[in-house]
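ok so heres the complex, two chains, lmk if somethin looks off
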Amino acid sequence: EVQLVESGGGLVQPGGSLRLSCAASGFTFSSYAMNWVRQGPGKGLEWVSIISGNGGSTSYADSVKGRFTISRDNSKNTLYLQMNSLRAEDTAVYYCAKRHISGYYFFDYWGQGTLVTVSS
Amino acid sequence: EIVLTQSPGTLSLSPGERATLSCRASQSVSSSYLAWYQQKPGQAPRLLIYGASSRATGIPDRFSGSGSGTDFTLTISRLEPEDFAVYYCQQYGSSPRLTFGGGTKVEIK
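and the predicted structre for the whole thing:
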């Protein structure tokens, strides 16, 4: 059974940093591109970032480029999101999501999410 | 960036009724690379439809997707109590720059 479990969320001051983790199990982690998707309070879904299976290729939404860094450790089956220079508008539930087995960029499994609150 | 506009924002229907949700793209979505998700309060989204019309594993056949180019539709033939939720469309034709629609809430009338 595929499982994705996020952790690392919490309350952080504007300008601060936070690192999110997503522990994966139930599939060959290194074979799949992984994503972060966020959802602000009462808002819709926003794609944040993607990393290829071997970690060699990444892409970011314009809203986080230069501030967030996605990475992965395939030996630990874990995905990360390093978030720096956080702003109030980064407040959201952050989900990790697995790319579909077809290889196309939609998501067949999601974690339960971790809440990041940026506030003084 | 492809912008997806979903309508209506809220759909008020009774169990057993048919629901028709629209997703319109600002430019053509290549190869009908469009997916639909369902999200219930406090839960992660669940994949319903991909490739505009293919049902994901385990999704009941009352859910169907159609459309191409810039206009896509999610239809729920007969609403069950568990179908009242928010639905999002997502395009992946311009991957990896992925975008979601703003969502349609299907609520009990």
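quick notes: Chain A touches chain B at residues 35, 44-47, 50, 59, 61, 95, 100, 102, 104-108, 110-113 (CB under 8 Å). thats all i got rn
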